[in-house]
Amino acid sequence: MELSHTKDRFTLLDRLAFGNVVEANVFGFINKTFRFSNYFSLNTGLRFDQFLNNYTDHLKVDSIFKSNEAIVSPKISLYYHKDKSTQYYINIGKGFHTNDTRVSVLENGRKVAPPAYSADLGTIIKPTNNLLLQAAIWYLWLDQEFVYSGDGAYVEPSGKTKRTGFDLSARYEPIKSLYIDVDLNYAHGRFVDELKGQNYIPLAPVWSSTGGITYKNKNGINGSIRYRWLSDRPAKEDNSIVASGYFVNDFVLNYNQKKYEIGLSINNIFNIKWKETQFDTESRLKNEATPIEEIHFTPGTKFAAKLAFSIFF
């Protein structure tokens, strides 16, 4: 693991972080379902995680730092089966937010995997044989939000957060071999201990959606056209800087046989300009007197087509 200050990307000036990370996670899970009647059932579960972290810091004469932490996460789900086509459920559980090993070893494993508490209430409905609908509202509380600073090579605690939202999805087969799917998600996230207007969670998604049309035929021809949509979202706690959303479409077409496959994939079929990774960061060009705070980003994939041929043996 290394983050260094360089000149022209090749000449090393100084290292900000330089070391080796070793992480290990041993876990186990048990669950039990209780069916009280044809309508009600209850599922309970318990997960145990043991984390072992080791960091060798080459900037501190190869000093070795270690930590370990054990976490128990209970979960419970209650289901109401109204009939064969309709089900309602409520899930409640505890999880955790994992973080950077370097933070874990400095805290000796304490408060570096803060608990997360969640609940969701939803339904699954199949009104016809070729249509499946799902809907859920949910709540998520996180005891500590950790944010990685790419320029500083450190992870900083940012405080408690809570999120509420809903998820909608549909699966539809209008005719044989043709499938349509849509997922729509909304999330309202805020820092708990900050003043209103200063409590946005940077880069937390607000609206998002995926979906597409897929064709599958027994003669070996299959293909799909899909979309990804992400709305604008705050890039700073006061929402004064915004990360731009995007709507991107991809296309895939394959011809499969027992011994070979021919495939065509096209990314960003409409060749839109979009920003993938985005961060609110200060930077200064050579002719600028002071640093400027603005969005830094990785350009999204341009129009690109790939033709592939595979042989199976």
Describe the protein:
By secondary structure, the protein is mostly beta strands. It has a single domain (2-311), classed as Maltoporin, Chain A. It has 1 helix and 20 strands. It has a 14-stranded antiparallel sheet with strand order 1-2-3-4-5-6-7-10-11-12-13-16-17-20. A two-stranded antiparallel ribbon has the order 8-9. The two termini are 40 Å apart. The relative contact order is 0.08. The mean pLDDT is 90.
Output the keywords.
two-stranded antiparallel sheet, mainly beta, 14-stranded antiparallel sheet, 1 helix, 313 residues, 67% strand, Maltoporin, Chain A
Q: Residue ranges: pLDDT <50 for 5 or more in a row?
A: none
How many helical stretches?
1
Number of domains: 1
| DSSP helix fraction | under 10%
CATH class: Mainly Beta
Outline of the structure:
By secondary structure, this protein is mostly beta strands. It is built from one helix and 20 strands.
Q: Could you give the topology of this structure?
A:
Layout: E1 2-7, E2 11-35, E3 40-57, E4 63-83, E5 86-96, H1 101-106, E6 115-128, E7 131-142, E8 146-149, E9 154-157, E10 161-172, E11 178-191, E12 207-216, E13 221-230, E14 233-234, E15 242-243, E16 246-256, E17 260-267, E18 275-283, E19 292-299, E20 304-311
Antiparallel strand pairs: 1-2, 2-3, 3-4, 4-5, 5-6, 6-7, 7-10, 8-9, 10-11, 11-12, 12-13, 13-16, 14-15, 16-17, 17-20, 18-19
